[in-house]
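Side project, low priority. Logging it here so it doesn't get lost.
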Amino acid sequence: MKASRALTPVLAALIGTGLFATPTAWAQQAAPQGLPVLTDPATRGPMPLEIPSNGTVVAEATVAVRSRVDGQIREMHVEEGQRVRRGQALFTLDSRMAEAQLAQQEAQLASAKAVAARARADATRYTSLRGEGYTAAQRYEQAQADAAAADAAVKATEATLVQTRLTIDYATIRAEADGRLGALPVTTGNLVRGSEGTVLATITQTDPIQVQFSVPERWLPSIQEALANGAPTVTARAPGDPHNPAQGKLFFVDSTVDTTSGTVVLKARFANPENQLWPGQYVNVVLVPRVEPQALSVPVQAVQTGSQGRYVYVVDAENHARRKPVELQRVVGGRAVLKAEIQAGDKVVVEGAQILSDGARVAERAAPSQPGNRPAGNRPQS
C-alpha cells in the first residue's frame, strides 16, 4: 500500500514529460492538425463593369474677348482669375466721340424728317392739281421724286443713328459666356483697335466641364449598347485628390478608331460647381457601361496564379482545401469577378493559400481584429 502511494508521484511526473500519455492525449496527438487559413465566402450580386482609363480635362468652351470698336480703355470692371457671368461688363472704352456723333446725327434726322414732310405735302398738292389739269406732268413727277428722296434720306439718317448707337454699346465690352477669366494683358489707359483683333481677356467655361479619354476598341460594342439605353456613368479624379470622384455622363464617341493605337476617343460631361476638375488636368477615369446583376465575386487575395492558370482554394465541409480553376474577368473594389464552378457561400481561402495543396486539411482561424476594435478591458493604460 505504501509502495503504490510512493509510485503515484513518479507516474504523474512521467505522464507530464509525455513519455506516458493518457488515452485522451493519445487521441489528440493522433488526430491530424490542419494548416491555419483565413477564409471568406464567395458572393453573387450586382457588380459594375468598369473600364479604367486616363484622361485630360477639357473646358466646355473658351471665349477670346476682343473689341469691336476703337477706343481707349477708360475703366476695368474685373480682375484676373475672376469668375464672370454672361453679359457682365468687363471693360468700358472712351465713347465720348461716338456720343457727339450721335447728337449730331439726331439733329440731322430731325432736319431730314422736316424736309420729307414738306416734300410729301408738295407731292400731295401736285397730285390734286394734275387731276384738275392745272400742272404739267413733269412738275408732278418731280414732286413725287422729291418726296421719295426725302423719305430715303430719313431712312439713311436713321441707319446711321443705329450704327452710332451700336458703337456706343460696343464701347462696353461684356462677357459672352459664363466662366473664369485668365490673365489680362491690358490695363486702364491702353488704346485698343477693333481692326487689330487684340485679345483683351480669355473666358474659360469650367461648369460644366468635359473629360476626354481613350479606351481599347474591344470595349466599343459594350459602349454602343450602353449609349442606346442612356448615357453611361463616368467618374474622374485627379491623382492624390482626397475627395470622392466627380461623376459625369458619356456624351461623345469618336466616329473612327485610331489605327495606330487601337483606341477610340470618348468625352464625358461633368457638373463642376466647386472646380474639382481643372482644364488641362490629368485624371484617372472609370467608365461604367453596365452593371452585371448576378456576378460571382471573391476577395481578390483569394485568386492565385500557377503554371496552369488562375485558381482558388475552396474549403469543403470536411475542412479540406480543394483547388478550383477560375477565369478572372475583372477586379472591382477589391473583389475579383470570376467565371468558375463555385457557388455563392463557398468558403475560399484568402490567407494561407501559398502553403496549401489540393486536398490538404485546413483549420480556419479568426480574422485579426482591426485597430480601434480592441475590447475596452485590453486597452493600454495611459
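Brief comment: The longest helix spans residues 96-132.
Revisit when time allows.
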